[in-house]
Amino acid sequence: MPHNQLLRKAQVFIELGVIAIAALWIGRQYLTIDPDIVPYGSEFHLVIQTHHFWTWIKTCGVCALWNGTMRGGFPALVDLQGAILHPIVIAATLLWGVVNGAKFTLVASFGLAGAAQWQLARTLKLGWVARLWSGLLAVVGAHLAGRMEGGWLGIILSTATASLVFAPTIALAGNGKRREMIWLAVVLALTALSGQGYAQIGVLFASPALLFLLMNGKLQLRPVWRRFMIVGIIALLLVSPVLAPLFHFLPNFDKGVSPQFTETQPLEYLVLNFVIRDFDFHFTSDLSKPASAVHSALYIGWVPVILALLTPAFAKKGDRRELLFLAASAGLILLAASGFTLRLLVGLFPALAVVRNAMMIAPISVTPILALSAYSLDKLLKSEWRVELFSRPAWAGRVLPVALKLLLVIPLIGSVYSAAQFSRYFLWTLRVNPEVYDVLEALKTPSLQWVQTPAYEWVFVETGIRMGLRFSPGAIPWYWKDRDTPAPYLEARRTEKPAPENGVPSDVAKFATIYNFSDFREFAYVGNSNGMMTPCAAFGVGGDLTVECDASEDGWLILRENSWDNWYAWRDGMRIPLEEHDWLTVEAPAGKHHYRFRYLPWDVPAGLLLALVGCILMFWVWRKFSE
């Protein structure tokens, strides 16, 4: 390998190593393998609950395709809150479990954001100072860390992943090589798989900026648009394992809406969040914003903002297309985050009303803003600084400009330090109260009965799922349209709260009272036309349930589990049909019988097959297109 090439590779390794060290440092409190030490943020346990998909995969294989932990159950891959199929989530969960894996996912997300920013600066052919500085700011900025005020890991992971899109987009528009085509298709698919949806919406709303890259000076489409179209097709195919079950289930999907997008902030105030580092300010409604740092904390500091605003002064003619793309991307993302664009479009596309927390779109705007800042910094460092003095020695004309440039180190380091110090407000941990386990132990049932924990205390959610409990109504951000949730068999309420209707106190677990109920709330039972209901014992995980019944009369076996396409039933080893009912229901003759119910969907294999087609297309791109 040539000496110069070896040096370049060593420099890349060193620069990325510095970014990785910064990620480990900013997330150092998360580097623990104790599952009872968790990130601060009330919704952390709520956000990571879907990651149990991979623990179920290890336990029972395809049974994981049905999530039987909440509200009667649902197809596991239709819940987009968690990034179930993101490679970082998969690897971290399989290696360290759900809680510890989520903590390592957080640290990896900081590093991924920094690497994406570094790669974007490298694509713009910027020097090492600009590359490293912008990458470090992407790691430590509050646009990521601020989401942990609410424990929103998914927003951080999706923002970091979406940041990867900009570099290959610019590279492909510039040279149209097969390598960039494949990489862009992969990162678009990863972005779609990274959960939540807000960063993805930001990328979608920024897509019109692509015209600056695709149009020539005569406002005609350049031939490279065809390669972008192929990239889009491949990305859609690669994400089919999620899209196929999602579109199959979509008519049953319901979610709270906000057509007025009240949880937003006017654009002229929203942009100020990039330079506000007053911690208490973010918990007020000042400047017409939600009183929550999870919405508004975006601090990166004045230095990158000023440098980004100075870009027109430093822009080279040959770089204008890329710079306009970045500036337009940032502007379009912020317009969407302020609710302006969404309010204009919601009349035409009512489904946009589900974007209730539009300010979560804003963090992805930091990527193009920092790229513009890095560009200005690089040109500033490479410019010729002349120092005119009336009387000076000959060497001063050479030394003083260098000395003045070195003074830039102070604001550059200061900007990274300032952002990191502010972000540390949101990146700390706490220990799960041991009494949480006492309450959950008291909620254990002899069968698969549904239970409920104290309302809005999400620490119980993932911890309870880990212990094998099933919650109703539980906590997921969407609803199964026109379906009732199964009533809980047991419910825990804070001792100071009033008793639930029909609730009979049966136990006291530390700070909570456990209630049983006087009405019939068994999970599995045989009912008949005479009103007789015989409880049955039910066992299993996810989409693989077994039931043992001994009924004195003929009737119908009913499981309070949502019935849906591709559930199948067997009685004593023989296949039997399911009845038309919201709950899983089959005929149940008198006597002792063994039943098995399995969820074996067609949409997931179909999605995997389409993803395979996407992989074949990538191979075709590699063979057909030039390097």
Flag low-confidence runs.
none
Largest beta-sheet characterization: 5 strands, antiparallel
Overall pLDDT metric: 91
Q: Indicate the radius of gyration in whole angstroms.
A: 28 Å
Give the DSSP E fraction (strand runs of 2 or more residues).
5-15%
Overall tally of domains: 3
What is the distance, rounded to the nearest whole angstrom, between the alpha carbons of the first and last residues?
20 Å
Strand order of the largest sheet: 13-14-19-16-17
**Shape verdict:** globular
The overall strand count is: 19
Task: Tell me what the structure shows.
The structure is a single chain. The chain has 627 residues and is α+β, with helices and mostly antiparallel strands. The protein has 26 helices and 19 strands. Strands 13-14-19-16-17 form a five-stranded antiparallel sheet, with no helix packed on it. Strands 6-8-10-9 form a four-stranded mixed sheet.
Summarize the structure.
This protein is α+β, with helices and mostly antiparallel strands. 46% of the residues lie in helices and 14% in strands. The longest helix has 26 residues, at 98-123.
How are the SSEs ordered, and which strands pair?
Blueprint: H1 3-26, E1 37-39, H2 44-48, H3 53-60, E2 66-67, E3 74-75, H4 87-96, H5 98-123, H6 128-140, H7 142-145, H8 153-162, H9 166-175, H10 178-192, H11 198-206, H12 211-214, H13 225-238, H14 240-249, E4 253-254, H15 267-270, H16 293-296, H17 302-309, H18 311-314, H19 320-337, H20 340-345, H21 366-382, H22 396-406, H23 409-423, E5 429-431, H24 434-442, E6 451-452, H25 459-466, E7 479-480, E8 490-494, E9 503-509, E10 512-517, E11 524-527, E12 533-535, E13 537-541, E14 544-551, E15 555-562, E16 567-571, E17 574-576, E18 583-588, E19 591-599, H26 603-624
Parallel strand pairs: 6-8
Antiparallel strand pairs: 1-5, 2-3, 4-7, 8-10, 9-10, 11-12, 11-15, 13-14, 14-19, 15-18, 16-17, 16-19
Helix pairs in contact: 1-5, 1-6, 4-5, 5-6, 5-8, 5-9, 5-21, 6-21, 6-23, 8-10, 8-11, 9-10, 10-13, 10-26, 11-19, 13-26, 14-26, 17-21, 19-21
